[in-house]
């Protein structure tokens, strides 16, 4: 099989892997499906960026996944449940099970990355079509762990980084949905509201005694920039906590590599 970007897909090609749908457990299209022009146009419209295709030249070649599709689906569901509980204004202090579930996902991310040492940068298939918020949180967690692994951080710090990534946008559940789901660039006024989400994430998680201060600081500073032009504090250089610096790279990379309604990846 071979992975092809959406622009290279043509009618008559056979899928070599399922394409995930909105519900991670229900595929958009299944292995063996023969693509047609209507399906390819639909894939483009909803933001699917490519697919694995079966060809004679690549027969027998199996790409290595950092996260297996079934496990990825389970992790996405856990992240979605965490955000859904946050929308209900359930605090992490009063709902310990929510934290334990997301902490388990963080450890699973780290375990998968460490077991795939020689394939760390085979990331071509990391993004499929899922709800952007949940998949973004998972991918920022994975990318942050990759960076942390590369610079030699301990396993406990990698677990912290994964948790930072999974929860860094939890504060967006307190931002008006018409802003978070807007299919286009934000106005200046909307952007100022959106810029509150790192601090809202920090405040939402602050009372959870199981989350370390280092994780909280990383989440709160993931939009700071090395030149001091970020937010919410305008920190610069190494005044930005290490987790915040790592998250910033992972966050921007994943955002830029994802197709959004108002721009291509």
Automatic annotation (TrEMBL):
Q: Which PROSITE patterns match?
A: HD_GYP
User: Which top-rank group of organisms is this from?
Assistant: Bacteria
Show the Pfam families listed in the entry.
HD_5
Task: Supply the InterPro entries for this chain.
Answer: HD/PDEase_dom, HD_GYP_dom
Quote the CDD domains the UniProt record gives: HDc
Q: Which positions fall inside the HD-GYP domain?
A: 111-265
Task: Spell out the coiled coil positions from the record.
Answer: none
Name of the protein: HD-GYP domain-containing protein
From what organism does this protein derive? Lacrimispora amygdalina
Q: What is the lineage of its organism?
A: Bacteria, Bacillati, Bacillota, Clostridia, Lachnospirales
């Amino acid at each position: 099989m071979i992975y092809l970007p959406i622009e290279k897909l043509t009618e008559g090609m056979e899928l070599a892997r399922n394409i995930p749908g909105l519900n991670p457990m229900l595929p958009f299209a299944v292995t063996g499906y023969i693509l047609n022009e209507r399906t390819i146009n639909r894939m483009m419209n909803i933001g699917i960026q490519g697919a694995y295709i079966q060809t004679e030249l690549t027969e027998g070649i199996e790409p290595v996944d950092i996260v297996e599709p079934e496990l990825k689906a389970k992790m996405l569901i856990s992240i979605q449940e965490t955000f859904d509980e946050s929308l209900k204004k359930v605090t992490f202090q009063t709902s310990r099970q929510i934290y334990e579930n997301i902490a388990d996902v963080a450890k699973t991310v780290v375990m998968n990355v460490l077991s795939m040492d020689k394939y760390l940068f085979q990331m071509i298939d990391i993004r499929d079509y899922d709800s952007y918020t949940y998949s973004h949180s998972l991918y920022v967690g994975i990318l942050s762990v990759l960076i942390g692994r590369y610079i030699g951080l301990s396993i406990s710090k990698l677990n912290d980084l994964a948790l930072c990534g999974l929860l860094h946008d939890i504060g967006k559940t307190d931002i008006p949905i018409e802003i978070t789901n807007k299919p286009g660039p934000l106005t200046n006024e909307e952007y100022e509201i959106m810029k509150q989400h790192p601090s809202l994430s920090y405040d939402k998680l602050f009372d959870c005694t199981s989350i370390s201060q280092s994780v909280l600081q990383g989440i709160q500073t993931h939009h700071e920039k090395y030149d001091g032009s970020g937010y919410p504090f305008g920190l610069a250089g190494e005044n930005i906590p290490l987790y915040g610096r790592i998250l910033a790279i992972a966050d921007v990379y994943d955002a830029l590599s994802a197709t959004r309604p108002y721009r291509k990846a």
